[in-house]
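note to self: the first set is below, dont mix up w the second
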Amino acid sequence: MKRAALSSCGLMLLLPVLFIGAAVGVLGGGTSVSLGQGSPQQVAGIPPEYLQLFQAAGARYGIPWEVLAGIGKVECDDGQNPDPSCTKEGAVNSAGAGGPMQFLGSTWAIYGVDANGDGRADRWDPADAIFAAARYLRASGAPRELQRAIFAYNHSQSYVEAVLHWASVYESQSVPAAGHPSGAAGGALAFALSKLGVPYLWGGEGPGGYDCSGLVQAAYRAVGIAVPRTTQEQFDAGPHLPGGAQPEPGDLVFFGSSVSEVTHVGMVVRSGEMVDAPHTGTVVRTEPFPTTIGARWGEDRYLGATRPAA
């Protein structure tokens, strides 16, 4: 949304951040499964919003995201099981477990986290539950002793084998994408994509609403990188990519009438696609953008890209 006075999509205060960090290497703990970082859109059967959370939580705690997805699959079909204990707030199964990662209340009291920054740790909230599962696995010995950690999650060898089976399936389906980001860029992108569907709110602080520059600031703040608040300030801060360089995932792309009238920013998902909070009446979403500087984008022009994680 254009605001001449701010030259940005809005203004916001600092907000609680999602616990996302750089990805780290893992050891299989006795399993031969090779667990790598894959392209979210190429893993069949996992809802995109869940996949982004698995990857972000895995990066934060050093847990292979495929293992988290495997646990999610076995427990609640990655959020798609209609059993009320998987999705209905307050509902539990016969063992007293509830939420998409099926936490017991006693375990949740120790390992539950407020991953989405809404002020409470809720085991029925997917973000909170998935980050808590990663935290629990880490505390139980993962990634070095991965099988032992999975066994601690559910004391059954057949459970361990089922989780590792699904982890292997997900790893085989995920084709590494060229330029797929790791570290800060990957964490910032995962944060932004985890907000898909959140309403646009001019000056929004999140987690219930964002404007374009607010989403960008929150995403990079989540990985420990400070960027200015307004779109114009973010553009001016750089560092800018050379004119002929193509932006990579996690880079910021800017739009407006000129470099002194920058009115919109998005974050690159892949070549020609960005995640952004467009304007009033929309939600955080992905959409195409031109990759040639000066090319039209609606009423504006593509002005160039920066790389905050450089």
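second set (the one i keep forgetting abt)
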Amino acid sequence: MTSLAQASHDAVIIGGGFYGAAIATYLAQQRKFSRVVLVEQCDALLQRASYNNQARVHNGYHYPRSFTTAFRSRINLPRFVQDYPKAVRQDFTKLYAIARRNSKVTARQFERFSREIGARIDVAPPRIAMLFEPRLIEQVFCVEEYAFDSTQLAQSARQELAASGVQVMLGTKVTNIRRGPGTLLVDCQGNGEGATLSTRYVFNCTYSGLNQLGGDFSGTRAQLKHEITEMALVKAPPLLREFGVTVMDGPFFSMMPFPARSLHTLSHVRYTPHLHWIDDAGVDPYQRLRDYHRESRVERMLRDVGRYMPSVLDSTYVDSLFEVKTILLKNEGNDGRPILFEHHAALPGCYSVLGGKIDNIYDVLEKLDAEPLVSGSTFD
């Protein structure tokens, strides 16, 4: 850490999740920054929200109440598949089923919406439709949607960072961002040592920890909402192993392949969120997660899901992934998942970035393309 503290850097990226790693690679490869540092608190990359999620590569179907989010997913999916082919799993059939009651969309509306965003949709054949309880499900559709292997994604990120010459600091926590004389100063703690990195640009990609930094960093303008969520991992019965399933659109569920562990995730709109709160700089979301008593709700998930898809009751529960999920408060009611991309005027060269989905990374990169970033360690 000492050698890094003595040098000036083009950019410091805080947070070694998928977004932080992708931004660091972009700056080195596309913007030709030669001195890029990625700082991650964990001992490895892509260990938090990038791993503890449903591993879905969205194609728009999930957002019938947010056309912009849905359409951006349609645009971004082919690029993600092209850029990360080893991480994308396509060898399963993805189903969306529309509930007869309590759904915010009808089958006809869902089919029309899918065609409007240009997403493939077909009525499921009888052998597939029979997996569902017809008294509760109006229609079942076969769609085009994939899963990703987060361990493969992490391997790709490590390889790209190394090939791009990005310096990676693991096991290191950033505490402050400060305004220095013609530069930004990033205070770090790791391995019992402290260091201060001098840089022209800072990209705060800490997800739920966006507002936990001190110094001259005053936080994001946009309000954030946090949830402690449970993603159950199950061994699906043979009848369901070749499928990913989502029942729309309301208090229902998803069951998706989780390639990193050769299992399926099970999430439920009612039972997956355990606890929620509005972001506060004085409340560390990750400390709140560490202190949380993790009692699984998988039995309640399975009982409710079993009403719609009886064969799911033959699943075997294996584990649960507990994580903090963070969204923009303004989008809580409409299911939109735009990115947060804030340039902090009081700290020139400092950005905060938050994505709602894995494919949102391309929306971030488009924003970066429009920024007048220049290589160099001091401000003009």
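remember for set 2: The first strand starts at residue 8 and ends at 14.
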